Structures are given as structure tokens and as C-alpha cells.
Amino acid sequence: MALELLRLTAGLSRTWAGFLRDWDRTLRAGNYPETTRYNYLLAASQLAGYLAGECSEPHAADAGEDPTEVRKEHVEAFQAWMVETRSAATALNKHKGLQQFFKWLMHDEEEIDRSPMDRVRQPKTQKKLIPVIRDDDTKKVLDTCKGKTFVQLRDEAIIRLYYNTGARLSEVGRLDLVDVDLNLDSVHYQGKGGKERRVRFGPKTARALSRYLRARERHVGADLSALWLAERGRRPLAPNGIKIMLKRRGVAAGLSGIHAHRWRHNYAHEWKKAGGDTGDLMLLLGWTSEDMPRHYGASAAAERAQDTQLRLGIGENV
Predict the structure, then answer these.
(1) CATH superfamily ID and name for 135-306
(2) Exposure pattern of 275-303 as b/e (b: 16+ CB <10 Å)?
(3) Which of 249, 145, 135, 267 is nearest to 200 (CA)?
(4) For the whole model, what pTM was predicted?
(5) Beta strand extents in 182-285 (DSSP E only)
(6) Tens digit of pLDDT for each residue in 101-132?
(7) Residue 101, class by beta-carbon neighbours within 10 Å (0-12 exposed, 13-18 middle, 19+ buried)?
(8) Is residue 299 pLDDT above 70, yes or no?
(9) Of 138, 181, 184, 205, which sits most exposed with the smallest number of CB within 10 A?
(10) CA-to-CA distance for 265 and 277, rounded, in angstroms?
(11) Where are the domains of the chain?
(12) Averaged over 173-199, what is the pLDDT?
């Protein structure tokens, strides 16, 4: 993360860079997940870069030098720019990150008396229904992994773990060797906010993991603690590398939009379709909010309702 911080602050004023460095220290002390820290810092650094080079609002140049000079109109202009050049969903993520940054600047550092975010409205976003990935499409993706090379064995094990456990991209991507127990056929996940859980997996996933681990023992990076290794060199395969791999496997299978979260949606859909308990689903997928079971698998909710209607046979008793 130290290298990422240097990259994020490159080209920023010394004042902005210093504040971001100090904020990162506070986030690390608070045990914030690395992904959360990165997204927060990215939002603040993008605002600084925008103010220094793109923003035409009055006093934007001053704000581009010093975050204590940022005003409501600067943030609103930045959000509008994000909506235009990226998306409303991206602008919303930046809004949330900046809320945390200016809250820290006001309460922890006492550098400002009022946050410029106080009266900035969140960008409105449309909820997109992510379609579940069907078994036949998953088979097509897995078929691209057929073979005995290190990469083929590794990629099949990764895909089966997503498919079989419904885990987040980062949860599977940051597994260590010690997190997999082939005696109990279970995996130990570190979820959001440092929440831990252990999830069981099935025989096909266990077989894929066993085959990968045997190939891993012959890899030049076999002594590393990370479970997933890059094809070449002594380095782990990072979550972003897995993201790229999944997209590439999807294209090879003739499919678009293949990413880890589609299997997470599929897991929730299949669980609800089978009549599984919502509380148990929340434990398995690492959720604390009851809104999440409603959101995940929502694109297939009508299908579940129709299946239930047919099973109950309402109106067919006479």
C-alpha cells in the first residue's frame, strides 16, 4: 500500500500529499481494510487533481493546493464531472470517500470548522439488476480451464471457489495457504470490516484445490504464504489479476460481463430458490444487513416467485 500511496499522491501539492499520508496512517490504525483505504484515498486524490487542473470554479486553484480551502461548490463540480466522465455510481462512491476525508479533517485534525460535504447531495443512481450466471455458462467458463498446466489448474480452483461459496472477489483473492482446510473441506474468509467466517465447499471444489496445490508445490514461489500465485516469478496473484483472468476466461467462453460477483448473486438466488433460511445465508456470505439478501439475486426474483406459484398450486385444488 505504501507504493500505492506514492502513486496516488504523485503530482499533488505537498499539502495535499501530507494530509493524505496522515489520513492513511489513521485508517491503518483503525484497521480499515486495504481496499477501503485505497478507495478513500483515491477519491481524495482525484478531487485534488481535478481542482488543480480541471475545475473552473472560483478559488479552485487554492483548493487544489490545500484541502482546507475546498468549498461546497468545488465538491459539487467534481461530482458532476465524475457523473459525466465516469458514472453516477462512481460519483456516489467518491462522495462517500470524501465524506470520510473531510470528517477526519474536521474532527481528528481540527483543520476545518465545517465539512464542505455538509450540504452536498449524493448523486442519484439507478439500481442495476446483475443477472445471475447460469450453470451452463459457468460450465463454458470452466471448460476454458481444461488441462494440466499450472494456470489451468489454478484458474479452475479459483472459479469453483467463487461458484461454490459465493465469496467476494477480495475474499478469495487474498486467501493464504493456511486458510484452506482440505481435511474439513472448508475455507476461512476475511470479510469486510475484518469479519471472519468459515465456509464449507463441495467435492468438485476440493478436487480442484487439491490438484492446484500439488502443482503449486512445484512452483518457484511455493514458499510464499499467499494461496494464489502468478504464472511466472515469485509473486502472488492479486485480486485485480483474478478480475482480469475472469474477464479473459469469459471472453474465451464467448461470454461477456463475467466477474466474481455474478457467482455471488447466483449463490443467493439458488439458496433462496431452494427455500434456504435468510439468516443462514447472511452468515455464509458475510452480511450484517438484511437489505443484502434482497439485493443479491434480485434479478431472478420473478423466477423464484413463479417456481413457488407452481409448487403451491394455488387455484388448482378444485
Answers:
(1) Intergrase catalytic core (1.10.443.10)
(2) eeeeeebbebbbbeeeeebeebbbebeee
(3) 267
(4) 0.69
(5) 186-190, 196-200
(6) 999 999 999 999 999 999 999 999 877 666 78
(7) buried
(8) no
(9) 184
(10) 16
(11) 2-107, 135-306
(12) 93
